Amino acid sequence: xxxxxxxxxxxxxxAPRRGAKSKVxxxxxxxxxxxxxxxxxxxxxxxxxxxxLAEIGAGEFPMRPFTAGAxxxxxxxxxxxxxxxxxxxxxxxxxxxxxxxLLALSxxxxxxxxxxxxxxxxxxxxxxxxxxxxxxxxxxFDTEAARQRVERLGWVESAxxxxxxxxxxxxxxxxxxxxxxxxRGGMLSVIDAEGRPITDEGIQEFAHLPFIVGFxxxxxxxxxxxxxxxxxxxxxxxxxxxxxxxxxxxNLRLENGVDVKLPESGVExxxxxxxxxxxxxxxxxxxxxxxxxxxxxxxSVELAPGAGSTQGIAAGIKNKNGVVRPAEAGIGGET
Length: 335
Hints:
Largest sheet: 10 strands, mixed
Order of helices and strands: EEHHHEHHEEEEEEHHEEEHEEHE
């Protein structure tokens, strides 16, 4: 017989006891508090690392991570060896060289060279420095390396090297301007306005340039020459050589052999005084060997041996606190 539930006296069904299992209708799902909270799982399942640590804690050592690490390490060692050993670069260079050869066969090869701005630079030396060979692949020609080599040539101030497809290399150079001849010891060199040596060959072609003597002279000479060009151009035309003395001051050797001793400082005023005295007394055309301007308040004139009477030039110089004395041994000394 089917059991009959006893009805409550009040007509209200009693609530189910705690812990009692409730019946679930088939086909319906209920999210119980023990499995879900607001639609999410109360505890996420462990990930790969968590499972791996759990297995290690349980005494089991899975080999898959170690295998993957060993494979990665081996691949890294192989790649490192390829790059360090140069095998990758050699392979890439080989591929590039073969490609350039094929392009050269298609007409992209060096057949002509155009040079712009060359005056004194030797043409063959220019080609040798550029490393240009007729028939070489034009795409394999290193224009930057060629430019650096060309700029090492003595006469070249700057250079530009470019490709003109399909078969021409263009070299444009800016040459240095010769400024003076520099003598140190028994050697002569042509220098530019910055005192840099250009060449030791063909010196006779530049005999008209100012003559600079002494170590360290090229660094200081441009300033003196520019001063004289601006302030005393007529006196500059009479100067045959600029002699650097003890690295401190200059002697000017004039075309008639007279030495003009300039001071360490106040050179502009000393040159102006010299020109004024020469205009008044023509001292630079007299029978003298040196004019000393090292003292700011006087001009000293050294007479040549056997010079005649000091009247005239001596009287004129003494009126201006000058000093006239006969020439002595060691005139124009290095002091």
